[in-house]
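Homework help board

Subject: predicted structure for assignment chain

Our instructor gave us this sequence and asked us to write out the predicted structure in token form, then describe one feature. I got the tokens but I'm not sure how to describe them. Can anyone check?
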Amino acid sequence: MAKLPLVSICIPTFNGEKYIAETMNSAIQQTYPNLEIIVSDDASNDDTLSIIESYISKTRIPVKIYNHAPKGIGANWNYCIDKANGEYIKFLFQDDLLEPTCIDKMMKVLETDNSIKIVLSKRNILVDESFKSNKTKQWIEMYGDLQSNLNLKSENGISIIDKKIFKLSAFLIEPLNKFGEPSVILFKKDLIKEIGKFREDLIQILDFEFCNRALLKYKAALINEKLVTFRLHLEQTTNKNEGKISDLQKFDVIVYNQYFWLLNNKTKMKLLKKHSFIMKILVTIKRKLFL
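My token output:
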């Protein structure tokens, strides 16, 4: 019997001592048998690394820890990938959890179709008691099911996402992220050679910008089962950066520059009016003529 491909569970960390033990437990409890765990740490100054080191003796899965000077979120993700030996990359963030069968089920989907390079799943939302509020409730109502407005067909519990989504009117409507946080995604490592790594100049949208880029060449498969738990809490990087991040303002510029010809006509016209210098001049002239 042929050995199953190696999957690298990549865990970027920074001061994650509060939840990292739960995260590590979910990693070592995977039913998929051929794994390694790659930890890329942005110079944590709490007990994150000592907690992770304690798992080296608790599992047969190789646990490799790399500590380095921080250079940003994207750089830490990419450093994880650089150090990974696996044929496949499975991100797991320091506060998230995987169901025991997560990687097993994802790999079965990926290995059946060469046109699929990314597989993702639905996710549970776990809210810390200190983070429960009406605002959080509204967030879950908006972002709890990221694919709800895509009208995807499901066959045997699997939906396919391809570049046709760029033509949907829902593409530039919230939620802009049609995939999910990195913890819900598993992808083939050789995809990096074709489309490049995560953009290190972005902070908030670098995960779904990467997935959108991948759709230009390949399909993504969505498992309509909650195989990952995404945790909401006060110490999340997104919450710490709230008010500082301007990535969302860049998103339609990226779409305009990279996906314009795949969009529907209404969206094309909207972006032309907003970003085309010639179109802005024409609109100005038209307004003056009809004053």
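Reply (TA_rk): Your tokens look well-formed. For the description, you could write something like this. Residues 7-258 form a domain with the Spore Coat Polysaccharide Biosynthesis Protein SpsA; Chain A fold (CATH 3.90.550.10). That's the kind of observation they're looking for.
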